[in-house]
Specification:
79% of the residues lie in helices and 0% in strands. It has five helices and no strands. Helix 2 crosses helix 3 and helix 4 packs antiparallel against helix 5.
Length: 140
């Protein structure tokens, strides 16, 4: 059990790093990371990008642990793990962006901002499921 949680954490951190890099590659030099920091009300002109980057890494690890506890009980099946990863990314979006960002910080949600925050988190979920599957399959 502890092994699957550790694998979930590592897969979550790696998927979070790659997702953070998706937020770096945008129309400006990592300006989307300010939006990530703004979800929690931690945005500032000087440190907003760094805070956003660290938040994605931290949340990637947390959701990776949750994924590891849920998917660790199943036999490795790529389709199931990718689907569970997508659901994990959608839950991250719903809890953090929708509930915290909109509910607490009154972040406005337009169609473009929903897509701009949802798509990278779904990519996170796919990466999480894929990395976890590969590591579990190699260790099985």
């Amino acid at each position: 059990m502890m092994r699957t949680i550790r694998q979930g954490l590592l897969a979550g951190l790696l998927a979070g790093l790659l997702t953070a890099l998706l937020f770096v590659v945008d129309y400006g030099p990592a300006n989307s990371l300010h939006g990530v920091a703004h979800w929690f009300g931690l945005d500032s002109q000087g440190a907003g990008k760094l805070v956003g980057f660290l938040l994605i890494l931290f949340l990637g690890g947390v959701f990776g642990i949750l994924f590891g506890t849920v998917a660790g009980r199943w036999q490795p099946a790529l389709g199931r793990w990718l689907l569970t990863g997508l659901v994990t990314g959608a839950i991250w979006w719903a809890l953090v962006v929708l509930l915290i960002g909109t509910g607490i910080n009154h972040v406005g949600l337009s169609f473009g901002s929903v897509l701009y925050s949802l798509v990278p988190l779904l990519v996170y979920g796919l990466l999480l499921g894929s990395f976890s599957y590969q590591w579990r399959w190699q260790n099985a």
